Amino acid sequence: MFVFDGNVRTIQRVAAKVQRVMVVDSNPATARLLTEHLRPLGGVQIFPAPTAEKGYALARAADPQLIFVEHGSSGVDGLAFTRKLRRSDLTCREAPVIMCTSEATAEAIFGARDAGVHEFMRKPFNLKDLERRLEAVTLKPREWVEAVAYVGPDRRRFNSADYKGPRKRKADASDTPAARLSQALRIVKSAAQALDSDPTQARRALAAQALELRRVGEAVKEPRLIQAAEALACCTQSDITGADVRTELVKRIDALMGFMGSEDRGRAA
Fold first, then answer.
1. Where is the Response regulatory domain positioned along the sequence (predicted)?
2. pLDDT value at position 72?
3. How remote is the C-alpha of 180 from its chain's centroid?
């Protein structure tokens, strides 16, 4: 049996993005099964890790393009592993994560989504289950969200073929400039509040939102927003830390808060 029904072009597109795959699972049978299923993609390297701790160390060394992580029954806390990965300095911190577990409850699925997992797959899984997840993470990329409370792929587009409960939050209006401006400014506000408690992630979030706000400013042709976003970007790119840089960041943030609507002033992302 061939993945993707033998569609050579699709196989090539997927294969290019999954040459290094890490499997964090205490059961070695999972890595063997994935090795067998991924064989038609050709040349895929599988890096097994029996614990989350060893998986994290291996991720630094192997720089995987795709990560499968167990959660629950085997003793591997896939949620904690994913949250740590997303907030790390590893090159692969944005790599797609597919969580595999026999505990396919609504609580587990939403927990995976909120930890920064890309896809959720119920055990035992078959080739078709795997195909759907591989297609989702390689051919249907999701925007990356760099906030403070959350780091990972856009949760509004999270989907699981296993979940049969109430539908997830729809994002029908989430790509308008107004919606993007609102979300970016709420993340900036949240990051400002975390400059002392979580400075590394706060600056990451500010840098990412500065780029997003510039894109929004260009889309709506608002030069003041573009200028304010560029000023914030320059400040976040500095390697210098300390009170002076913090003061400058606060000034840049305050300048952007003038673009925040009244409905967002009491909210933070």
1. 20-138
2. 78
3. 17
Would 244 be classed as within a structural domain?
Answer: yes
- Residue-wise DSSP of 94-153: TS-EEEEES---HHHHHHHHHHT-SEEEESS--HHHHHHHHHHHHHS---EEE-SS-EEE
Q: What is the CA radius of gyration of the chain?
A: 20
pLDDT tier at 178, thresholds 50, 70, 90? very high
* Domain co-membership, 250 together with 190: yes
What does pTM read for this prediction?
A: 0.87
Residue 124: asked if its preceding bond is cis (omega within 30°), the reply is yes
Specify the CATH number for the domain of residue 113.
3.40.50.2300
Q: Look at residue 167 in the predicted model and tell me its pLDDT.
A: 47
54: which DSSP letter? H
Q: Are residues 193 and 92 in the same domain?
A: no
Give the model's pLDDT for residue 70: 93
Type of residue at 91: T
User: Measured between alpha carbons, how far is 258 from 266 in angstroms, rounded to an integer?
Assistant: 14
The residues, any chain, with a CB within 8 Å of residue 247's CB and separated by 6 or more, are: none
Q: Same domain, yes or no, for 31 and 110?
A: yes
User: pLDDT digit string (tens) for 127-155?
Assistant: 899 999 999 999 988 999 999 999 999 99
141-146-148 Cα angle (round to 5): 145
The tally of domains found in the chain comes to 2
Q: Is 185 helix (H, G, I), strand (E, B) or coil?
A: helix
Place of tokens 């209006």: 173
**Which domain-ending residue is among 117, 141, 165?**
141
Rounded CA separation 92/118 (Å): 14
Same domain? For 118 and 193 the reply is no
